[in-house]
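Progress against Task 2.4 (sequence-to-structure conversion) is shown through the following example record, which the project officer requested during the mid-term review.
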Amino acid sequence: MKIQAILFDLDGVLVDATEWHYEALNRALALFGYLIPRHAHLTVYDGLPTREKLRMLSVEQGFPLGLHDIVCKLKQKFTIEEILTRCNPSFEKEYMVRTLRREGYRLAVCSNSVRESVLGLLERSNLCPYIEFFLSNQDVTRAKPDPEIYQVAMRRLDLPPESVLVVEDAAPGLEAARRSGAHVCPVAGFEEVDYWKIRSAIDRIEQGKGDPTC
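Structure tokens generated for the chain above:
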């Protein structure tokens, strides 16, 4: 079956924002004497929603449950500051999504971030005109690695999984994409994502050679 739609993760795929989220959360945690070490961020926490990270911190480091709400609010405030000062358009990403749209593919974004962050990143990176819709972790009851966000997106597109390609980088997103039944194009990070990477993945799938590997 031909690929008809492409679902992109956002942070680390369309926008180089993974570090901004990490820095914003640690900035909020530091106010209360806590920190997520970089190694733990890269190997365990990357790609998870903030509340899940805080839940894990409470289990592993005794982070007080009563501070979860205030840290979430502070982290969001700091994230928006990062977006406003550091997020700029990428010609390579604009070319990719513009060309894919011209070729007839439907494009959407599925992110574990909150709605305000997703919209801010898409607007600041000039990608909104090419994206049919986006889903955030506030649009589902179970965030990645649960496949719900991709299942919701495919229902909204009214397309079967075998006609959809998901582009993901972090482990939770890759697990969610594979469990959704869609085809998956794994990427190592923002710098690897371009039109030719996606074009090659689509051609490989449609030629019956299976999903690409990272």
